[in-house]
Specification:
The chain has 243 residues and is mainly α. The protein is built from 7 helices and 2 strands; from the N terminus they run E-E-H-H-H-H-H-H-H. Helices cover 68% and strands 3% of the residues.
Length: 243
């Protein structure tokens, strides 16, 4: 096998140096996506809403890993450690690695579907307070609050997310730079990038869409400036020589 550090998997090529960074933790995802509020009641309500989904997801992830571990052990049992021809050793190494990456791909696919659902549940329900209803008077009072407090809160929130966002941008930017000729990630690319960056697949799609739009606007603006650029007038005074 070529020593490029890449192993071919259906539709995608995974960088073996990145597979160790794949993350399937629900807690890490919630933290990275900042799926919480300063209201503890809302946080508890959200936790209860996603609990069945979370439990079933963790069970499925465990089953997937057990299934692929079983397949790996079957291969090892058929070919116990020993001296084999180089061709056989190469075949076994590739087959075991393919089995490992196939497992990761299945887990990434499950993660993408479940975490997008968790994101959707948060977006649809986090502003609903199950213990009280919002009245018009309460809404007016909320609007009348000091805007300076709101601005300060947003600044603090953006500052706390800054480092995490920069890390996410680094992962996605690296993929984009390698695929500038075709900056449209396939499904397998999206779930892989989402797992490494600890975000949802929908966030990867949103980031890529915004990136393409920014690049397109920048390119269009540059092209427009170049085409509308007028040549400088020749301001030199020509002096005619007397005969």
């Amino acid at each position: 096998m070529a020593s490029t550090g890449l192993v071919a998997l259906p539709i995608i090529k995974l960088d073996l140096n990145d597979t160790k960074n794949l993350n399937f933790s629900v807690d890490d995802f919630l933290k990275e996506q900042d799926l919480n509020t300063t209201n503890e009641k809302k946080n508890e309500y959200f936790s209860k809403l996603i609990l069945p989904l979370r439990e079933s997801y963790e069970i499925e992830i465990k089953k997937i890993q057990e299934e692929f571990d079983f397949r790996k052990n079957q291969i090892i049992n058929v070919f116990p450690p020993g001296n084999y021809p180089k061709e056989v050793e190469t075949f076994l190494q590739v087959h075991l690695k393919y089995n490992e990456l196939s497992c990761l791909k299945v887990k990434c696919g499950l993660r993408a579907g479940v975490f997008d659902k968790i994101q959707k549940i948060f977006n649809q329900n986090i502003n609903i307070d199950p213990s009280a209803s919002t009245t018009a008077a309460a809404a007016a009072a909320a609007i009348a609050n000091s805007t300076s407090c709101i601005i300060a809160s947003n600044i603090n929130k953006q500052h706390s997310l800054g480092k995490r966002k920069r890390k996410v941008d680094t992962n996605l930017d690296r993929w984009y730079e390698k695929n500038t000729n075709q900056p449209y990630p396939l499904y397998s690319d999206k779930i892989f990038l989402a797992s490494i960056s600890k975000i949802s697949k929908s966030k990867v799609e949103e980031w890529m869409g915004n990136k393409r739009t920014r690049i397109k606007k920048r390119t269009t603006k540059k092209t427009t400036n170049e085409t509308t650029k007028k040549p400088k007038k020749d301001t030199t005074i020509k002096v005619s020589k007397k005969k």
